[in-house]
Amino acid sequence: MDAQKVDMYIMSNSKYFQSHQISYLRERLLLLDEDKWMMLQTVDLKDPTTILIVSILAGSLGIDRFLIGDTGLGVGKLLTCGGAYIWTIVDWFLIQDATRQKNMEKIQQFL
């Protein structure tokens, strides 16, 4: 893949990934062929900031976990009212990294 395309992709989507994953992602993207590159462009990445706002506003209902694809944890938060709100507060600090990790798992399917 063209290095300029890869660098543009990383610059525009770096907020969706953890900082230590960027160099690995760049190396793997450089090895992609054109067909996989087109499929990669269609991947729906979740914005960690948006998920944090949802977590602050409706985290006790588990909506933040449902949005990133953690259905089991979302059901658990919903049934326990966010773990008596303790789990909700803990998630305010952890949900952005969890979102970035889920985004990386989505991208891994194409690498």
TrEMBL record:
Domain TM2: residue ranges: 46-93
Domain of life: Bacteria
Transmembrane regions listed in the UniProt entry: 49-68, 74-95
Entry membrane topology: Multi-pass membrane protein
First-listed, main subcellular location of the protein, grouped into a coarse class: membrane
Keywords: Glycoprotein, Membrane, Signal, Transmembrane, Transmembrane helix
Compartments (UniProt record): Membrane
The keyword Transmembrane helix is annotated on this UniProt entry: yes
Name of the protein in question: TM2 domain-containing protein
Species per Swiss-Prot/TrEMBL record: Flavobacterium suaedae
